[in-house]
Fold each of these.
Amino acid sequence: MVISITKITLHNYRRFFAFFRFNGQIINELKNSPCKNYKITGSWNLKTWYTMTLWEDDVAIDAFYRSGMHLEAMQQAHLFSSKISSKRIKGSQLISWKEGKKIVNK
């Protein structure tokens, strides 16, 4: 199994609603996808957001990321963020946010 951890830092607070519009739609698609589990958290100032998802394999992740609302969000990501990083690790269940943030912030 594969865990995908993503960090997104918004340009500014005006981009908050654009980001959340996409994020809400992506979460709805996640619920109907082969994703095994997911979680989301934000920083105290709401400018940095983290997502963590659990997948059977890289093929499943790539199929999701390259379709639907996630693909559209990636194509328009420059409108709300210039700082997006993502890491994948092997694991059978989601890890703690402390561990996940450490990994994606390397």
Amino acid sequence: MQDVLTMLQQLHRPRLLMKAARIGAEDYRRTVHLPRLLGYGNLPRHTSALMKLMEMESNLNDQRVSDDSAYNLLRHIDVLIAIVSEARILRATQGPTAA
């Protein structure tokens, strides 16, 4: 099984979505944003959070690609912001060998 960071490197989304996510990631606060996306309670570890977020994002991307009327662009960007931010935190906690 691939590790979560490798899976993220293989994730390709439109440039504008990713640019919005990177900009939004500057203001990301885990304790505020993550419960809103994953539900309230104890915050999961970074890897678990990333796996859940990637599953959510995959569903949102499927809706986007299929022009589903239930697709919510703002929710998609929120999830991408959380993914970018959680990945940054995970990389930082793994140290220089993760680069």
